[in-house]
Amino acid sequence: MKGDVKKVVLAYSGGLDTSIILRWLQEQYGCEVVTFTADIGQGEELEPARKKAQQMGVKEIFVDDLREEFVRDFVFPMFRAGALYEGVYLLGTSIARPLIAKRQIEIALETGADAVAHGATGKGNDQVRFELTYYALKPDIRIIAPWREWDLHSRTDLVEYAEKHQIPIPRDKRGEPPYSTDANLLHISYEGKALEDPWVEPDADMYTRSVAPEEAPDKPAYVEIEFAQGNAVAVDGQKLSPAKLLERLNALGGAHGVGRVDLVENRFVGMKSRGIYETPGGTILFAAHRAMESITLDREVMHLRDELMPRYAKLVYNGFWFAPEREMIQALVDKSQENVNGTVRIKLFKGTASVAGRKSPNSLYSLAHVTFEKDSVYDQRDAEGFIKLNALRLRLRKLAGK
Q1: Quick check: is 203 catalytic?
Q2: In a domain, 87, yes or no
């Protein structure tokens, strides 16, 4: 079976694990390997990955800047839906996987590859997210998941394999790392090792995208975010592209300790795992978007969307981005966002992002109706019949002796 593969597209970071996978594919499958490295805002220089692939004999190397596509076509649609997994997680890792897998399939079609490979382990969610996308976009694709095939089961095994095959090993990889990380423009996550005990507080020096809230400035900062049809389009009056806008919010939020989450989540494969997330810009954006909706969405539209939100978030988390049900919910969500236009002012202070003001040309907020002062548009006597009609079934139930 292994000899059937002629060419494989590998999702390649240039790190130790995927470099070992690259050599392992060449050795075990005897096939040509095409490497694909995606820039989705992880904050790392990607040219070393290209050079490393060249040194390992790779002829076709793809290093693609996908930052704008990532935010525009994946992060923003998800934020329009107000998606939170299990009430806390802004889905930073989950939403990146379908984009990477989609580009892998495109490269496979461009290069005539008959297989794709990824470096996700057999315990996690990412293997599911990658492979559901592969199959959704190219049903007959061959998938190679080395972690489910090889006999390398520990960090020691990986280091020994790398040394045997003369694969450069970063100095800090020779020992046990305190945790594993995954980063993109939306967030960075920390998992494993020192974090596996959910009772133990993370080390203060672990965080890389935000200052500790207690060390944040003593004076609050304010930021104004402008929305058009549910998408953020400007910060403090400056129009920005999707990726540049999120970068700006990341910097603002990180400086004020915004966006840290310590979560024990339910993986799709069945186990619970503890993760620490930093999502400074996303946390600001989520609060601002919700505030913008509060004055522009009809009550029943908002409530219906909110009923569907956990289902949508679960679909993203589990890897069903390209499933018809996600696309159906997205169409409903996008319809709801047509009048989500205006500006929200957010106050950043000591780890919090709180709403300080909101305004919209499409506002449904009527001061004339809601005021506690005298008004001429609302007859309070109307409420009596409204309440009696809503109470009718309750009264009948009691009268019937229930």
Answers
A1: no
A2: no
